[in-house]
């Protein structure tokens, strides 16, 4: 497969949706119930008529984070059930906002 992971840009191992793919590491996260949160530039991103964003049309800003799928759906909401199984696009600053309000426990 000659594709790059939509999350990190590494070589992809599996196509997951909308002709986008993920690498082995992000597939392992996804298999354990995590999804990627990717920050985008909303002005540079092409939106579909229904308001969704296809991964190939997202203008990524760089920061990415992994979060439990159930929590991402609860906190962020979603309008694309299929995409919500793998990733969420969020505005710039969302990841740092979520990190600042996260309590880490062992």
Helix content: 10-25%
Please state the average pLDDT score: 86
Low-pLDDT segments, ≥5 res:
none
Strand content: 25-35%
Strand order in the largest sheet = 4-3-5
Output the helix-strand order. Answer: EEHEEHEH
| N-to-C CA distance | 38 Å
User: Structural class, from helix and strand content?
Assistant: alpha+beta
- The shape, in one word, is globular
The counted number of beta strands is 5
Largest sheet: number of strands, sense, barrel closure: 3 strands, mixed
Number of helices: 3
What is this entry, summarized?
The protein has 106 residues and is of the alpha+beta class. It has three helices and five strands.
Task: Explain what you see.
The chain is α+β, with helices and mostly antiparallel strands and 106 residues long. The chain has a domain at 34-100. It contains 3 helices and 5 strands; from the N terminus they run ββαββαβα. The chain has helices spanning 24-31, 69-76, 94-100; strands at 14-17, 20-22, 34-40, 60-68, 87-91. Strands 4-3-5 form a 3-stranded mixed β-sheet. A hairpin with a 2-residue loop joins strand 1 and strand 2 (20-22). It is globular, with a radius of gyration of 13 Å.
